[in-house]
Amino acid sequence: MTDVAGTAGRERRTAMIVLLAGACIIGLAPILVRLGEAGPSAIGFWRMIFALPLLALIARRESGGVGPTGWILGLAGVAFALDLAFWHYGIALTSVAKATILSNLTPVIVTGVAWLVFREKVRPLFLTAVALAVGGACLMTLARDPGLPGVNPPLGDAFSAMTAVWYALYFLAVQRARQTRGAAQVMFWSSLTAAPLLLAASATLGERFLPATPVGWAACVGLGIVHATGQGAIAWALGRLPASVTSVVVLVQPVVAAVLGWLLFGEVFGPGQMLGGAIALTGVVLAQRAARPAAQAG
């Protein structure tokens, strides 16, 4: 029993490390979106296109190939297309930090659905972790300087907040798909489903389709790599951790994005943002601690 519990503990720690690494990598995404020099949906399309070959190679190594598709993989792809379209427009209209933080208020939705629909146990400590993580993210938003960059911050904030709904649906679909499929297979089929939807959205909205300079193309290629590695790591961890726990831990992402937005775009990151980031990270740590007893009890 001790060996089994020890192995389970090591696997959970490994999953947490991979999840944190994936969340930090995804923190680079909003910076690359800003540098993409194309329409928000078009950038999402190129992100999928450049990620697909890498995902196919990883799936071949991991599972012998991409395997067949299925309805749950299609649902994940639709949810991810909506997630990217809303989020990329949020990034274009408001600050990097606010777009990323608001889009990551997913834990409230994921935890509620996981509890009500999938009957996942929610411990009191975990609820405290959710409150701290979300509260810290909100503090980072509310403490921002009124002179933040952004073409239309209120609309961008609304798009970003709506992203949390699509991201929650994506999380839950991926977790369900990971019960029978490899992480790279899930990522490949969800990305392949999302690509034409993003292309259609770009054409319908009359966006600039091609990046204007080599820098823009490099940013889109970088997004493809970030997508395959970062989201791939998160998808892998979702096969080993509850969706409610995973959705809180990825709140590391907005902290990374806020710091990079401050360094690269001069977006103010003052004491309020630092305090909010510290509170959010405290929630992440507590979420990890809350997950361990739940796993041992089950």
Portion in strands: under 5%
Terminus-to-terminus distance? 13 Å
Low-confidence stretches are 293-298
What is the count of DSSP helices, taking H or I runs of 4+ residues? 13
Provide the helix percentage.
over 70%
In total, how many beta strands? 0
What class, by secondary structure content?
Answer: mainly alpha
- Largest sheet report: none
How would you describe the oligomerization state of the chains in this entry? Answer: single chain
Mean pLDDT: 81
Taken from the alpha-carbon principal axes, the silhouette is globular
Q: What is the helix/strand order?
A: HHHHHHHHHHHHH
Number of domains: 1
Write structural notes for this entry.
There is one protein chain. The chain is mainly α and 298 residues long. The protein has one domain (24-297). The chain has 13 helices and no strands. The longest helix has 27 residues, at 271-297. The radius of gyration is 18 Å and the shape is globular. The two termini are 13 Å apart. The model is unreliable at 293-298 (pLDDT under 50).
Topology of this structure?
Blueprint: H1 2-26, H2 29-34, H3 40-63, H4 71-93, H5 96-103, H6 106-116, H7 124-142, H8 153-177, H9 183-204, H10 214-238, H11 243-249, H12 252-265, H13 271-297
Helix pairs in contact: 1-10, 3-4, 3-9, 3-10, 4-5, 4-8, 4-9, 5-7, 5-8, 5-12, 6-8, 6-11, 7-13, 9-10
Write a compact overview of the structure shown.
The protein is mainly alpha-helical and 298 residues long.
Key attributes of the depicted protein:
298 residues, mainly alpha, 0% strand
